[in-house]
From TrEMBL:
InterPro entries in the record: Aldlse_KDPG_KHG, Aldolase_TIM, KDPG/KHG_AS_1
Entry keyword annotation includes Signal: no
Keyword check for Lyase: yes
Record field: catalytic activity: 2-dehydro-3-deoxy-6-phospho-D-gluconate = D-glyceraldehyde 3-phosphate + pyruvate
Pfam families named in the record: Aldolase
GO molecular function, one term: 2-dehydro-3-deoxy-phosphogluconate aldolase activity
Protein name from the UniProt record: 2-dehydro-3-deoxy-phosphogluconate aldolase
SUPFAM superfamilies listed in its UniProt record: Aldolase (SSF51569)
Organism: Thermus thermophilus
Oligomer and partners: Homotrimer.
Length: 175
């Protein structure tokens, strides 16, 4: 996936698996299965100290790797050094946005309200994580947001699973 536009890959994938590494996972085996199933992207959270190790271990896989739960510029920098091609955070962090823009790396901050979407747009961000989607009726909200924010691509996350999956709104609004 090297050299590909991460946002284009995310939009094409329509699925972003999220991995929180606790220890003992067969990371290379997981990467192989994802690739065999046609999933070319993986978000590895920084919720544990093993997240950066996992990014480093998988950086030579064929997967496009993102770092999730990025909560500071220091974490963002470490994730990029470890091999992340994009950054995701639970909220909008202006310092991380500036760092990502300076490095030419996509940053998808978590947003929920129209005010947060407007703040992100003012920072030059138009690909946003809609979080948490499920508890806040993501499908309904994203349908409304598609009318008001046609220039934004949303990545709905939080509470979405194969068992409770609901439509996430019009395709034009979601990644």
């Amino acid at each position: 996936m090297e050299g590909m536009d991460p946002l284009a890959v995310l939009a094409e994938s329509r699925l972003l698996p999220l991995l929180t590494v606790r220890g003992g996972e067969d990371l290379l085996g997981l990467a192989r299965v994802l690739e065999e199933e046609g999933v070319g992207v993986l978000e590895i959270t920084l919720r544990t100290e093993k997240g950066l190790e996992a990014l480093k271990a998988l950086r030579k896989s064929g997967l496009l790797l993102g770092a999730g739960t990025v909560r500071s510029p220091k974490e963002a920098e470490a994730a990029l050094e470890a091999g992340a091609a994009f950054l995701v955070s639970p909220g909008l962090l202006e310092e991380v946005a500036a760092l990502a823009q300076a490095r030419g790396v996509p940053y998808l901050p978590g947003v929920l309200t129209p005010t947060e979407v407007e703040r992100a747009l003012a920072l030059g961000l138009s690909a946003l994580k809609f979080f948490p989607a499920e508890p806040f009726q993501g499908a309904r909200v994203l349908k409304a947001y598609a009318e008001v924010f046609p220039e934004v691509r949303f990545l709905p996350t939080g509470g979405i699973s194969p068992w409770g999956r609901t439509p996430t709104g019009p395709a034009s609004a979601t990644m």
